[in-house]
Amino acid sequence: MERDDFTQKTKDTVAKRAAYYCSNPNCSKLCIGPAEKILDNVSYIGIVAHITAASKGGPRYDKNLSSKERKSVKNAIFLCPNCAE
């Protein structure tokens, strides 16, 4: 089954627009920070998730959205791993 996945550019934009904080108002966890062992790395745990599903049969799938709309920033939310479950 084909999925309308986000491009890396879209993921980066969504994460930056959220300032790397989980967008769930009951959470707001920071999802980026310094890596513990390698000083020039970062620890990044954020997930860019679809608001309406990326493919048929997924949660909240909207058949009225085009593929372009399904892959857009408007259909994305930035979440921590716990809120993305």
Oligomeric status of the shown chains?
A: single chain
| Beta fraction | 15-25%
Structural class: alpha+beta
Average pLDDT confidence is 95
The parts where pLDDT drops under 50 for at least 5 residues are: none
Number of helices: 3
State the domain count. 1
Task: Name the overall outline.
Answer: elongated
What layout of secondary structure does this protein have?
Layout: H1 8-17, E1 32-34, E2 42-44, E3 47-50, H2 67-70, E4 76-79, H3 81-84
Antiparallel strand pairs: 1-2, 3-4
What do these coordinates show?
This protein is an alpha+beta fold and 85 residues long. The strands form two sheets. It has a two-stranded antiparallel ribbon. A two-stranded antiparallel sheet has the order 3-4. It is elongated. The chain has three helices and four strands; from the N terminus they run H-E-E-E-H-E-H. Helix content is 21%, strand content 16%. A hairpin with a 7-residue loop joins strand 1 (32-34) and strand 2 (42-44). It has one domain.
Summarize this entry quickly.
By secondary structure, this protein is an alpha+beta fold.
